[in-house]
Amino acid sequence: MLHCRFLAVGVVLLAANLLAGHPAKATEPTDLNPTDWVVLDNGHLRVGLKRASGGAIGWISASGSTRNLVNSYDRGRLIQQSYYGRADGSLWNGQPWRWNPVQGGDWQGRSTRLLDLQVESNKAYVKTLPKHWASGEDLTEALMQQWLALEGDCIRVRYRFEVSGGRDHPVQHQELPAVFVQPEFQTLVVYRGDQPWTDQPLDRLRPGWPNEIHAMTEHWAAYVDQHDYGLGIYVPVANRLTCYRYGSDPKGIDACAYLAPLGEFAIKENFQWQYEVVLSIGTSQQLRSRFYELAHPSVQATAGSERDPKPTAEKATP
Which of 14, 33, 164, 253 is paired with 305 by a 20 to 30 Å CA distance? Predict the structure, then answer.
């Protein structure tokens, strides 16, 4: 079994790493069993939060559809928070790693601890104690939160990451967030030019292996299939992304497509960071049109506002 992830070295995201012999059996979901998933469906979109992966997004489809665009093959994929710090002597399958809190779990398939889960109508709140990706230890000095709301054809997500105490880390590229999609979505659509939002032609790329870094000057990108249909993400705080594709067989269960809008900052003692993203599905032009409407007026004006959902209907047991 193969697991894909990359290593942040210094301030440059580079090597995508392969791992054979993953000890935890993982399969792509074909349904949304309520024991395993929290499901939101507003008649436009269906979203599944994976309970055993810290409440990370593991399913996005059209309402009522069984075609999931998100790759949730193991704990390292999904759509999730992940951050990088200093080299700390940890090993990932024998490879030197670094401080790496992850929302979904560790490389051996162990779950993160879900501290709180609340849902109401088309909103959900998740609080997660992250794991160290390589060592598998619970990072008790760190906390991840996720507020999600379905709004028509869009999924608005606000992420917050906090460190209490801890140590200072050097500047790293950070995933904002990590996004893994199914392998049949082979084409990366992004605008890389210097005239954003002027209806200039979009770039259509076929990322390779390992990571590539590209400009993202309209602050969004998408992976689409042969019919120009796919999953897009708009991240106002990011103007670059890293990406790759693994696997030559688009039907291969261990193949995937990956992108992450990039931030570049150091995580310090008593650190707090939050940002907002918007996800949607559709054709590249539909996605561009929706994200344009969000950018004018800009989502950046409200990215830090306290528009938290206040759900109360369901509460998970820690």
Answer: 164
Distance of CA 220 to the CA centre of its chain: 13
Round to whole Å and give the CA distance between 268 and 278.
Answer: 27
For residue 79, how far is the Cα from the chain centroid? Answer: 3
Q: Is the peptide bond before 177 cis (omega within 30 degrees of 0)?
A: yes
pLDDT in tens, 113-172: 999 999 998 999 999 999 999 999 999 999 999 999 999 999 999 999 999 988 899 999
Domain ranges of the chain: 35-301
Amino acid in position 155: I
Q: Residue 11 and residue 265: Cα distance in Å, rounded?
A: 9
Q: Which residues of the chain have pLDDT under 70?
A: 1-30, 248-252, 298-318
**What integer pLDDT is reported at residue 250 of this predicted model?**
66
Q: Give the integer Cα–Cα distance in Å for 76 and 112.
A: 11
CATH fold for domain 35-301: Beta-galactosidase; Chain A, domain 5 (2.70.98)
